[in-house]
């Protein structure tokens, strides 16, 4: 896991470098440029950590329980709890992005793939007879009937 230096920055310097970082992300302008920028800047571990946090938030906002999230994303309960707490105390930015993802057709297909993975986990580890497993399988069957 990435670590921050023990030597603290002056608040004004920290504020400026964070602003530069955020502006850099905004300036990428396209998915290809963003991928290139993130690949240059983050390690594979840092990328997966951030992706898992976003996925945890997405699944929590969709009403998935901790067991389903833990089994699907291979994350710990404390990690899920941490994301849950920041969703409750702040999380407006994540909620906005989740809404945009839901409206974006190509991203919705990715989300449906994740749902299918969750259904596989629920129907194999908890059995098809589990309440969550049956509900998710029915939802997936309905969503496959919708044309994309």
Short description:
The protein is mainly alpha-helical.
Describe this entry's structure for a reader.
The protein is mainly alpha-helical and 148 residues long. It is built from 8 helices and no strands. It folds into 2 domains: 10-41; 42-144, no CATH class. Helices cover 77% and strands 0% of the residues. The model is unreliable at 144-148 (pLDDT under 50).
- In N-to-C order, the SSE pattern is HHHHHHHH
Give the assembly state of these chains: single chain
Number of strands: 0
Tally of helical segments:
8
First-last Cα distance: 39 Å
The low-confidence parts are 144-148
Structural class: mainly alpha
Nearest-integer average pLDDT: 80
General shape: globular
- Rg calculated over all Cα atoms: 18 Å
Per DSSP, what share of the residues sits in E-state strands of 2 or more residues? under 5%
**Share in helix:** over 70%
**Count of individual domains:** 2
Biggest β-sheet strands, sense, barrel:
none
Helices and strands in order, then pairings?
Blueprint: H1 11-27, H2 31-41, H3 44-61, H4 66-73, H5 77-89, H6 92-103, H7 105-125, H8 131-144
Structural descriptors:
0% strand; 8 helices; disordered C terminus; single chain; 148 residues; mainly alpha
